[in-house]
Every structure is written in C-alpha cells, then in structure tokens.
C-alpha cells in the first residue's frame, strides 16, 4: 500500500510543515476507502446512540494503526446528523434495530486528496477549486467534499471514478493509496492510455458553462451569527477527551437562538473538530491546536440538495478562490457548508451576492427573451 506524508496546514497563512511542493510535484491520491453517506433525523439520535457509541469507542480507544483503516465524519446541522463512514463502520452503525432510523445514500463514494501546498498560496478547498472542483463540475461529475485540518477530501461516486481520474490526469500525477486490485488496474490502464499518442484521453467538458465565464449560483445561502473554531485533536489526548467529544456530539444542549453546527472527523491521525468557539474552554490546553481567530459558517441550500446535481461546490468555491479567501468545506446529507475566516466573511458575502445578482439578472433576461419569442410578432403594425 502506497503511503504519503501528511501535513499540518495553517489555513490562514497557507503554510505547511514539510517540503515545499512545486507545480510539477502535484499529486492526486486515490484512497482505498469505500465510503457511505448516512443521515439520522434530529428526533432519532437517542435510538442510534448505542451503535454510535460502539463505533466511536473503536476509534477513540484504538491507536493510529487501528484508525488508519477507517474513515469517519459526524456533522450536526439544524437538519439532521450527517455521517460519512467506511463500510466496516457502517455495518456497526446499522447492526441493530435502529437501522430503520438511518437513511443511507445508495451510492458508494471514493475519496481523492491532493497533497497540501501543491497549488501555491491558496488555502483550504480554495486551493483546488480551479484545478479539481471546477473541472469535475465541467465534466458532470458530482462531488461530496470534506475538509479536515490536514486535508481536503473530494469524494466521487464509484461509478464516476474513472471519468474523474481521466479528467484530472492531465494536471496531476495519480497515485493509489489502496491495495484493491481494481484500483491498481484502473490507474495502470490510465497511465498506459495517457502515455500513448494514439489513444490519448480527450475528455470534453459536458457542462455548457465556459471556463472564462462566472459560474451561476443557483441555491440560496445564509450566514451564521455564531463564531466557530476549527481545531485538531492531538492523537495521544484522544482517550482523555473522548468523553467530552461524546458530550458535544450526542448530548450538547444549545440555546434556541444558536446556529446549530458541530463536526468531528477521524481519518488516520487527522482528528478534526469544528465547534462553537465558546466550547473551546472545555478542552485542556494541550489537547488541541487551532488557528487563531474565529470562522463564520455559510450554509448553502434550503431543502435537501441531493447527490446528483453537479457544480454546487464549484459555484461557491470559485469566486472565493479567485479572491484568495480560505475555505473549509463540509458537505452533509441535506446541505453544503463552508466556513470563512471572520475577517473575510464580509468580502466573501459581497462576492457571492454579486454572483447571485448576476445569475438572477441573467435568468430574468432569459425569461424575458423567451416570453418575447412566444408572443405574437408585430409586422408592419399588424399581428402576424
């Protein structure tokens, strides 16, 4: 199994520990996890608590070697509890009578990750908006994104994996962090095809949107009042803060005026948490590290966005990336969520509002043009 070095990124400064990576070094890793996206209704958490506790104890008590085989993310919003997890953990979660309370998307998702720092000074998901998120949207590949403190995971459906890798193969060196024969065979096949002049991959964009034109924003968004912090849990302190994390996940009681958002992700030793800044004081000082300052949450979508629509992440991330605004992006079962540094949220909202206004004007103009085409045409002062 191919391994690759993890980095610790300060998403504000754009700095990473480790060697400096140039554009020629850009590498896209296909991870071996087979992932599922599940949703638990807000009124059903107590029914699945036992299964969740079993799952979390496995992650919290295990060493890094035990966690390395798992991928887990839990996010609470005002809509639901959204969970991303590997097949083995899904079996634990759905192993008892509580399974009928859990809605699981039928698709299997595969995570891709770009080495941190590979794309210059941009940080967070912004650094891969132009090179990864945009091209996948252009080629009609739906993505499901998860930012952690160390990585930005871009998940594509298993059925779209080959198309996604073909799309990105011209910009990145592809590597496989998987011992699955099908993955190794797929990458070997792509490598042969890319290297052949006679069968070079010529994948044309499906989306009609021109690369030089702004992407329209089609979903409403709202900005939170609360301030949030993005932290990493020091792996060795995980057993000692496990009870606190469980309390925040399963038993936290928030004011009705608060914006509801909490997220915990455990991928290897990358243990990330997004929480209300007021909860930081509950943790021992040596248990976590985080960037200074607070973040604000922008929620995209009102109802369920679904998994088939392409380009939602690109619509939001593109203008922010162009302005070099850091983003921390978390997709959930119902909505998309991006966190913006508090000092940049005003500029971010201005950019998104301008893009939304332009989209609305364009749609109104199109409707006006269509209505004129459908109306009777005046010729020489008489109706035709």
Overview of the molecule:
The protein is an alpha+beta fold and 384 residues long. It is built from 9 helices and 21 strands. The chain has helices spanning 45-61, 64-67, 87-93, 129-138, 161-168, 181-195, 238-251, 312-322, 345-374, and strands spanning 9-10, 15-16, 27-31, 35-41, 71-76, 80-86, 103-104, 109-114, 143-147, 152-157, 173-177, 221-223, 228-233, 262-267, 270-276, 288-290, 295-300, 328-331, 336-341, 378-379, 382-383. The strands form 5 sheets. It has an 8-stranded antiparallel sheet. The chain has a 5-stranded mixed sheet with strand order 9-10-8-3-11, covered by helices on one side. β20 and β21 (382-383) form a beta hairpin. The longest helix has 30 residues, at 345-374. The radius of gyration is 22 Å and the shape is globular.
Short description:
The chain has nine helices and 21 strands.
Sum up the structure in keywords.
single chain; 384 residues; alpha+beta; eight-stranded antiparallel sheet; five-stranded mixed sheet; 21 strands; globular; disordered N terminus; disordered C terminus
Give the helix tally. 9
- Give the fraction of residues assigned to helices: 25-40%
Q: Report the principal-axis shape.
A: globular
Order of helices and strands: EEEEHHEEHEEHEEHEHEEHEEEEHEEHEE
User: How many β-strands, per DSSP?
Assistant: 21
The overall pLDDT average reads 79
Content-based structural category: alpha+beta
Give the N-to-C terminal Cα separation.
72 Å
Rg estimate, integer Å? 22 Å
Largest sheet: 8 strands, antiparallel
Order of strands across the widest beta sheet?
A: 7-4-6-5-14-15-13-16
Which strand-content bin applies to the residues? 25-35%
Low-confidence stretches: 1-24, 196-201, 366-384
